[in-house]
Amino acid sequence: MNILILGSGGREHAIAWKLSQSKKVSKLFIGPGNAGTTSFGVNLKLDPEKFEEVKSAVLHNKIDIVIVGPEAPLVKGIHDFFLDDKELNNVPVIGPVKAAALLEGSKDFAKEFMTRNNIPTAAYRTFDNATRKDAIHFLKKQKPPFVLKADGLAAGKGVVILNDFEEASRELSAMLDGKFGEAGKKVVIEQFLKGIELSVFVITDGHSYKLLPSAKDYKRIGVGDSGLNTGGMGAVSPVPFADKKFMEKVEERIIKPTIKGLAEEGIIYKGFIFFGLINVDNDPYVIEYNVRLGDPETEVIIPRIKSDFFELIEGVAKCDLHKREINIDERFVTTIMMVSGGYPGTFEKGKIISGLDMTSESVVFHAGTKREGDKILSNGGRVLAVSAWGSSLEEALKKSYSNAGLLSFEGSYYRTDIGFDL
How far is it between the farthest Cα atoms of the chain? Predict the structure, then answer.
């Protein structure tokens, strides 16, 4: 089988790393990929959001299955593009159709879906510019902290939690005035839930599903979960508080109703579902859906899958996922994200990375890198994810941090407290 993975981050590197271990995979292509993915396949110069470029790559390289890494192509309808094209409609796409991708593409849609299917989530209301006065009035009646969410995709920056009403009111107006462009045309105001967050993942063929390892990521740039939100500064798996009893609640109250609800609404969902959850007094609530694997969570959940990952991908493609096996490594895996100085604000690219040949007992996944000659350079805000295994959380973290300490590039930074709150 020839596989094309769309994307260029640590998630796509981790998927390529795992699929390269399968005897059923003949060739791997990654579009556009990064310096790390070249170790496992061929990088293709293409933009995953330009569907004609993807089509050319699929036909030229005789691709059998396409795995979509990031959310933007899915929300824009890449799966539908394949289904509607006579030359592509026999090529399976791992990733939902546009109607299902709205679970991530529209927070209002996701909230309505959860309400219809009795899936536990925070109470909410949605407002647009025409109902701005109602929004301010509704906000005034809420207790702080105030949670504001731009309805659409806003590059991870569309969720704001504020304690001061006046500040929240100004932020609400800024959103409706176009702060996040089209993404903020509608704004969801929801109840603040107090608890600890985690991520749960499944892969589904639209009928059955397989539960993947749970994970917890760390979004804030600074130690102690301080500072600005980022794409993720590290992750751990499994999540110690997500025990068997808690996960049974997750499956019965959230996962099964989600899969059933999609099917009953005529949406056959083929791909990954990311459940962003919060544990409130040992009860799970959905904060958000994502319609793909998370990053950096992928860099801790993929290394814990012991069985052939391609078997699950093929199970989705052939709609026989219920026949497939998944075996999970019981050890902990942790990842530490090394980022560019100034991230998530302004940062420089093109910094030479050293120490990649010095690491051991770990896997270094490239999140934002490029190769120039014999040098590997930084090429993004998040640059490297250092993942390691351990029989305990402490052992895995010790290995991740020890290897991160061997890597360097000008201005590099990483949080020193990932997993310390567990």
Answer: 60
Each residue's pLDDT tens digit, 357-385: 999 999 999 999 999 999 999 999 999 99
Beta bridge partners of 202: 211, 273
Domain with 47, as residue range(s), is 2-97
Q: Residues 70-103: pLDDT tens digits? A: 999 999 999 999 999 999 999 999 999 999 999 9
Clarify whether residues 141 and 87 are in a common domain. Answer: no
Nearest to 288 by CA among 392, 395, 410, 147: 147
Write down the pTM of the prediction. 0.95
- Residue closest to 387 by CA, chosen among 402, 365, 405: 365
| CA 102 – CA 130 distance, rounded (Å) | 23
From CA 387, how far away is CA 201, in angstroms rounded?
19
Query: pLDDT tens-digit profile of 249-277?
Result: 999 999 999 999 999 999 989 999 999 99
Return the CATH number at 164: 3.30.1490.20
DSSP letter at 128 equals E
Q: Which tokens is 5 given?
A: 């993975």
18 with 85, same domain: the answer is yes
CA distance 100 to 183: 17
Pick from 225, 208, 207: nearest CA to 216: 225
Asked if residue 87 and residue 135 are part of one domain, the reply reads: no
Q: Please, what sign has the CA dihedral across residues 160, 386, 195, 272?
A: positive
Domain end marker among 190, 220, 246 = 190
Residue 70, preceding peptide bond in cis (omega within 30° of 0): no
Q: Which H or E run contains 378?
A: strand 375-378
Last residue of a domain, one of 134, 169, 190: 190
Q: What is the C-alpha to C-alpha distance for residues 6 and 244, in angstroms, rounded to an integer?
A: 34
Query: Would you say residue 377 lies in a domain?
Result: no
Phi first, then psi, for residue 101 (nearest 5°) are -65, -15
Tell me, yes or no, whether 163 lies in a domain. yes
Query: Distances in Å between the alpha carbon of 215 and those of 22, 237, 274, 276, 278?
Result: 24, 4, 10, 10, 12
Q: How many domains does the chain have?
A: 2
Residues 6 or more apart in contact with residue 385 via CB below 8 angstroms:
10, 296, 299, 335, 336, 337, 338, 364, 365, 366, 367
**181 domain residue, yes or no:** yes
